[in-house]
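dumping this here so i dont lose it
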């Protein structure tokens, strides 16, 4: 009973933290700002955090960042970008069984920074896809893993505040690809 109560408290604490995070994101009056180098570092950190969460499963987490080493900036803070990446990795890990691959890629294309996170975990049920970004919505695999249904809602809110675009490419039986386009700022923020 004590272990069950501790698990319930941990789930409720994680839920409260996620709700506070979502409220903070939605209350932002101005987006953050990060350099392309900071985004690359956050992507690498998210991949490393994911690798530590894999445990005994045979899951490979690969990442590649092909951003130019320039002072261009994107309208998202480094911390928020790291949270976005971590949430996507956690979702992929929750959907993946005992073995699989999660691939993270960050590239610059036509004035945007494009983050792609894809897995080979079989994809989502097609009927769930229209609700995937809604608060408290969960695919069956996430529900079994104890998720709160806020991970993709947080990702979506962060992308919206940054003036970006999020696309889910679902291939049932193969996997899910999340593609996020974040516009590169044309002028540097004033100090």
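and the seq i came up w/
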């Amino acid at each position: 009973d004590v272990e069950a109560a501790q698990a319930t408290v941990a789930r409720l604490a994680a839920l409260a933290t996620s709700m506070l995070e979502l409220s903070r994101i939605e209350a932002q009056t101005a987006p953050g700002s990060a350099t392309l180098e900071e985004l690359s570092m956050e992507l690498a950190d998210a991949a490393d955090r994911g690798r530590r969460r894999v445990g005994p499963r045979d899951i490979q987490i690969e990442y590649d960042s092909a951003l130019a080493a320039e002072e261009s900036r994107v309208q998202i803070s480094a911390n928020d970008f790291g949270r976005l990446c971590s949430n996507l990795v956690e979702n992929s890990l929750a959907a993946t069984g005992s073995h699989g691959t999660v691939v993270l890629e960050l590239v610059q294309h036509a004035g945007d920074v494009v983050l792609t996170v894809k897995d080979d975990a079989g994809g989502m049920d097609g009927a769930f896809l229209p609700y995937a970004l809604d608060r408290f919505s969960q695919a069956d695999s996430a529900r079994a893993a104890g998720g709160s249904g806020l991970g993709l809602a947080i990702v979506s809110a962060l992308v919206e505040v940054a003036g970006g675009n999020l696309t889910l490419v679902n291939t049932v039986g193969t996997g899910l690809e999340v593609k996020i386009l974040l516009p590169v700022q044309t002028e540097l923020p004033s100090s």
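The mean pLDDT is 83.
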